[in-house]
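Q: My labmate handed me this sequence with no annotations at all. I'd like to see what the chain might look like in three dimensions before we decide whether it's worth expressing. Could you predict it?
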Amino acid sequence: MQRLLLQHLLAWKQKPQRKPLLIDGARQTGKTYLLQTLFGSTFPRVLRLDFLESPAMAEAFVGSLKPEDIIFNIELLTGQVFNPATDLLILDEIGECPRAVTALKYFAEQAPEMYVAASGSNIGLLTAFPVGKVEQHNLRPLTFHEFLLASNEATLVKAYESRTNTTAAHNKLFDKLTDYYFTGGMPEAVRTWFDMAATSIVERSAAVSKIHQDLVQGYQRDFGKYAGKADSTLIESVFRNIPAQLSLVLDDSVKRFKFKGVAERKSRYSDFDGAIAWLEKCRLVLKNYPIEGMPRSPLAAYQKENYFKLFLFDIGLLNNMLGISYKEIKQQGFEYKGYLAENYVQQELAALGLDPTHSWQDARAEIEFIVSDAEGNIIPIEVKSGKRTRAKSLQSYIIKCKPLKTIKLTATQGSSPIEQQHMVLPLYFAAHLAEHVNHSPRIVT
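A: Here is what I predict for the chain of 445 residues:
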């Protein structure tokens, strides 16, 4: 499978001096595969330590944290030779070894010529972090573009990348989009989906559903392991309530997350802020802040910390937690499940670096997403899961806010490429919103 983040890693490699890489992301999003298999193939040798699998490797960081001393200890523990000038050192699940996290600072200061990459699924939970000493990237589930690349259908990928606007291309791409709605972007689920292409759809979808189920159970085990018994119950309640609350909305916009009824004797934001923050730090949820009135840039200045929508980080897991089958998705034609389309667009925007996102509401009118362009103009993005393109909320926004440009994402083929003011794009082109967004994938240094 190809990962688009690889291009950023290759650019990092070409720098004459570099800070250590730090790849953050939820468990099982493919961090090790990206670093060891895809990126590692560009090096003569890769030496990888996995602190979760082999806790004894933490001994390499006992005592001195000078890079040369650490490399010497690693060679002793692994029995492998490492050339700092040419080889890649991977520190996997680095959050399990606090001394290794601290060591990143010394690699940045004393050995900037070395190729050091770290990864972890609990980076956000660290109590100490080498601020300014790493180049950080977030690896999310596969986007729809990456899903297409995994299909190995070259002509379809070409149609997507060139934004071919024909009926034949639209039908094929939308069919693939509804496949993606079911599988989501977790690498194991995507790989299984395409590997089993020759089997019956019943076996194929069942295999993917089993992977989804195992992943959800694995995350729930992590709640207890990393959050403590008392907090884990509350975290799981929130995690389970996200799909439940999303599914209450059919053809309307997703509503703000409601705290009442999530856990017994708890009904206020202050009761849940710790649990929600934990899920955010572990990259398991995505947050959207509704903005009221006249939106202005920067949007973050107008958000309310206790008023937000919550989405799941992967649409495939969302479907699994709701018990939605592949057959149901294909038969319904996705005409009424607007919240799934909205969750999908939220994921695509997060992959573009927009996390959290923002929406707009005024009285009964709601716009699913609003973004700012390079000049600070606010662009409304209406999401329609079906082929009905009439949007009363968008008309209300136009009258009240007078935007220079509007974008509508629908199940239709879209408007003519010539139209640049009131654009209609097919949902599968959500990633192309990057051209209209004043944002780029976040790099923390």
